[in-house]
């Protein structure tokens, strides 16, 4: 999972509150939109960054602040093409199976980490075992769940350190046996949780590796100044074919999207992936950054509001209360007034357009604004809260839409609602993880790979790494396993859709809208594109 967020006050929510103008601009609605090709290789550019939640260890990074760095400093078995997210072999030479349960993986020889050591089979096997081992508390450990033996390795007090489903055959070959067939397993292996780890980490995982990690990607971390910047330089030992253009990329850490936006306007920052709300409203960014902006609507990024874990707030657990909240949100109006009409309302929990060939509409009437039905549903709740908050991080442009969503809830249900900002994304996410967040919270999801499984298992299955509301539905989990074991993708998609529809009964989170991906850039750079995951393709950025 990869996510981001912003602050509180009430915004007028009439249809004329913000004018939806359209003028100029350089972005389209789909594809890897951005500037034309051209420019020159080498040199350096700056990009807006944010504080990673944890040290830079792939298996312990589940958010975009650290994820942007991890994606540039690691290589995996497969690589996702920026435009379509289609997977192709990278470190893997071959991934073979006859039954979608036992996979023989052969590596390319000579692929190296940034310290010059060669990537071998044991670097995958040992890394995956380390990620899965419960006492290590890696946030992406649950991505190893399909592998046979995960159940024995993953408990917090486990003494079993290796999964029986992993076997090193020789230096360049290893075998993966799953607990049940999963036809889409090879397509998952481009996610950072599956990155190989060098011997330097595996021999001393508790050291300072995470501050200056060693990876097999096109870049490596030269310097990390907390709350200030992360500087990446080209990895001289990079062995792959997906090289970066610039010699140096500096991620400057901002706690305010408005400040970053103004710096791009003034050419003091080169690339941003987040615009402040007042620049989006009315399409102002198109005149602020003429021919220096891009928009992509089909990225696999979705926005929800979730309900606190029962451990943190038992008052918001009634499914009927959650359903009433969902029907009280006028998604179309918020999108029109706050987002200049540049987002699409969600009618389910999976970004169906990004996944492709997946059925939409799982949420049904619960994701349609209906004041009368919302009030009637709230009346069925014995002890509904009289007030509620929506928590969010204040270092990204969330304040205005949170306020507008709150106003829609208050106007419809009479439940007092207001935003509750955290100073930055790390603080916000740490509170969620510690089950300290009450009421509701803003929640975004950026797909890790194009599969409905990725929108369902990591967020809603019991004990999953991003299941911050502690949703627990045995029937839902059983359906997910049935879907994963399907013989064909088409059969699996149908079963995933059946599982997705179950979420409407309990509404662990309220689907809001697909988060259109935007990028802006300075006059110094060109070839800025938005990839299928909704992020700038930093490898492609060139200097003019």
Would you write up a description of this structure?
With 544 residues, this protein is of the alpha+beta class. Helices cover 26% and strands 19% of the residues. The strands form 6 sheets. A 6-stranded mixed sheet has the order 14-18-13-17-15-16, sandwiched between helices. The protein has a 4-stranded mixed sheet with strand order 1-10-9-8, with helices on one face. Strands 4-5-7-6 form a 4-stranded antiparallel sheet, with helices on one face. α13 links the parallel β15 and β16 (416-422). The chain starts with 43 loop residues before the first strand and ends with a strand.
Structural features:
six-stranded mixed beta sheet; four-stranded mixed beta sheet; disordered N terminus; 19% strand; 544 residues; 17 helices; alpha+beta
Helical residue percent? 25-40%
- Note poorly predicted spans: 1-32
Assembly of the depicted chains: single chain
**Span of the ends, CA to CA:** 34 Å
How much of the sequence lies in strands comes to 15-25%
What number is the mean pLDDT? 90
Main β-sheet description: 6 strands, mixed
Kindly provide the radius of gyration, computed on alpha-carbon positions and rounded to a whole number of angstroms. Answer: 23 Å
- Please tally the β strands and state the result: 21
Shape: globular
Count every helix, treating DSSP H or I runs of 4 or more residues as helices: 17
- Numbering strands along the chain, what is their spatial order in the largest sheet? 14-18-13-17-15-16
Secondary-structure-based class equals: alpha+beta
């Amino acid at each position: 999972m990869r996510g981001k967020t912003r602050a509180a006050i009430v915004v007028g929510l009439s249809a004329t509150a913000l004018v939806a103008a359209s003028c100029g601009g350089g972005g389209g609605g789909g594809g890897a939109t951005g500037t034309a090709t051209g420019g020159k290789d080498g040199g350096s550019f700056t990009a807006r960054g944010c504080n990673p939640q944890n040290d830079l260890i792939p298996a312990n990074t589940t958010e975009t602040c650290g994820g942007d760095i991890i994606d540039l400093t690691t290589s995996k078995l497969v690589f996702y093409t920026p435009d379509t997210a289609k997977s192709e072999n990278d470190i893997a030479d071959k991934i073979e199976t006859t039954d979608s349960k036992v996979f023989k993986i052969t590596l390319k020889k000579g692929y190296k980490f940034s310290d010059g050591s060669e990537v071998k089979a044991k670097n995958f096997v040992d890394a995956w075992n380390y990620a899965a081992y419960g006492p290590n508390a890696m946030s992406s450990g649950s991505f190893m769940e399909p592998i046979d033996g995960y159940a024995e390795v993953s408990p917090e007090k486990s003494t079993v350190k290796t999964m029986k489903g992993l076997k090193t055959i020789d230096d360049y070959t290893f075998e993966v046996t799953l607990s049940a067939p999963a036809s889409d397993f090879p397509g998952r292996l481009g996610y950072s949780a599956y990155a190989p780890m060098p011997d330097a980490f595996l021999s001393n995982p508790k050291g300072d590796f995470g501050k200056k990690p060693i990876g097999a990607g096109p870049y490596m971390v030269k310097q990390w100044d907390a709350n200030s910047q992360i500087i990446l330089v080209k990895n001289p030992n990079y062995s792959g074919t997906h090289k970066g253009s610039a010699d140096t990329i500096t991620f400057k850490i901002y706690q305010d999207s408005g400040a970053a936006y103004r710096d791009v306007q003034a050419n003091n920052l080169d690339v941003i992936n987040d615009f402040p709300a007042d620049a989006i409203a009315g399409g102002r960014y198109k005149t602020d950054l003429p021919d220096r902006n891009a928009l992509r609507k089909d990225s696999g990024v979705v926005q929800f509001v979730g309900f606190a874990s029962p451990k943190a707030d038992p008052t918001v657990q009634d499914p009927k209360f959650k359903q009433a909240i969902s029907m009280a949100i006028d998604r179309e109006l918020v999108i029109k007034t706050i987002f200049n009409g540049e987002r699409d309302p969600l009618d389910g929990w999976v970004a169906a357009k990004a996944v492709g060939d997946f059925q939409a509409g799982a949420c049904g009437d619960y994701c349609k604004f209906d004041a009368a039905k919302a009030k009637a549903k709230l009346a069925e709740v014995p002890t509904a809260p009289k007030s509620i908050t929506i928590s969010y991080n204040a270092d990204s442009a969330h304040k205005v839409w949170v306020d507008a969503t709150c106003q829609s809830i208050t106007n419809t249900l009479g439940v007092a609602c207001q935003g509750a900002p955290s100073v930055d994304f790390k603080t916000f996410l740490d509170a969620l993880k510690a089950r300290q967040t009450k009421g509701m919270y803003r929640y975004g999801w950026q797909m890790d790979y194009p599969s409905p499984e990725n929108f369902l298992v990591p967020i809603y299955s019991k004990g999953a790494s991003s299941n911050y509301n502690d949703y627990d539905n045995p029937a839902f989990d059983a359906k997910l396993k049935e879907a994963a074991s399907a013989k064909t993708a088409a059969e699996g998609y149908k079963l995933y859709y059946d599982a997705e529809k179950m979420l409407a009964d309990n509404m662990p989170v309220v689907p809001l809208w697909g988060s259109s991906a935007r990028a802006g850039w300075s006059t110094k750079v060109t070839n800025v594109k938005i990839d299928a995951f909704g992020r700038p393709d930093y490898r492609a950025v060139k200097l003019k």
